[in-house]
Structure formats: C-alpha cells, structure tokens
Amino acid sequence: MSDRILRHPFQIPVDAINTGELLNRVIGWAKTSHPRFITYLNAHCINICFRDPAYLEIVRSSDLVYADGQAVVWASRFLKSPLPERVNAGDFFLRFCRLCSSEDLPVYFLGSYPGVAARAAEHIREKVKGFRIAGARCGFFSPDEIPAITSEIKESGAAIILVGMGVPLQEKFAYQHFREWNVPVTWCVGALFEYYAGLTPRAPVWIRKAGMEWLFRLLCEPRRLWRRYIPGNLSFIYKTLRFRLTGK
User: In this model, does residue 220 exceed pLDDT 80?
Assistant: First the structure.
C-alpha cells in the first residue's frame, strides 16, 4: 500500500497511525470489493511473534497492523522507531459502530464463547441507532462446521467482519479464510466482544491512559493471565533492551 507509513520496532512492521486515521481507513476499505486484513500488536503479541513464525508472517503480510498496547508505543520510541499513539478498539468501538451505521455498513461478529458475540452485537444495536448486524457466531466450532460458517459469512452481506478468538488463533483462522469470505474488511479484535457483552470489565480511563490496563486485567483474572503479564512482560522488556543494544 502506497499510503502506509510504517515503523519497524523489533523488525516487525507496524502502521504509524492514530485512531482517526485507522477509522477512516477501515470505513473507506469497507466500501470497496477488495478483501483486506487488519490486526494489532501488544506486548503479548510481540512475545508470540518471537516463537511462532507462522503468526509473525501473518502480521507482516497484513494490510494494517496497529499498536493496541501502550507498551508497544513506549518500546517503539525507545527503539527509535516511534509510533504516534496507542490505538485500542475498546476505546473507540462505539464511535466505529456509529460510523458503520451512518454509512450503512453491516458488521459480522465472529468469536468468543457461545452467545457472547450475539450479546455484544445486540448491546451495540441498542446503543447505536441503525446499526446493522450481518450475523453473529461464537468462536468455538469443529473443522466440519467451517464450510457452513464460510457460506453464512459470504451470504451475510457483511462489509466488515470482526474476529475475536485470541492471539494467534484468530489471526491464523481469519487469514486462512478471509479471501474466501470475500468481505471487504476482516479485523481481528481479541477480547472486544467480552467487554461489550458485559462479561469483562474495562479498566477506568485514567488507568488506560497510564498504560496500566494490563495490571487491571491481571487483578481481575489472576489465575488465567498471570503467565501472560508477569513473565510475559519481563520477557518483553528483555527483548526491548536487547534490540536497543544489538538490533536483534
């Protein structure tokens, strides 16, 4: 893409983009017929990139990759490859849905536990007048169900499909199928549906602005997230220091 401005912290391409620019690009792409793939990076994603070459290749091949985590923004500046700001879908999702409504762009929700995607979609529809839901499915299904899911997505008329299955499963699944779905925008969104379905609380704004949302999440779900955030964050800091010193 000729209009991309990329930075390369950790030798991984990340779009130097702010929230407004991302929204404009997504809405613009949703009006075209060319399928595009969007994902994000946070400290956990960076750690996975270092041990999962298939996931790393998907990130490098994506049409847009944004800094979802404040740690990635801080690291990019420390590594002399600065990104402008954290771009986190949870912070602007209602704004995004209002834009979809105003442009009459149907959105398909795919992911999370049974019933969660549908509940999130309905909650959005209650808040955003005219928001069109193209469909909603949970992210737990057998390989035998994939052809039916693909047919449903292709027939849904979706302009955008949001895939929330967690990293790297969502990227691997969506990247394998997004051209077959033939939806203009496929966007990996992680745990977004849980937030908007009311299952998972979000950190207060001041905690998010301080770059400490990871600590809030850890305190909410310590048994599930301690490995990701304690040894994981230490590993990310080590990688950042190593790259500053050695470039690899």
Answer: yes
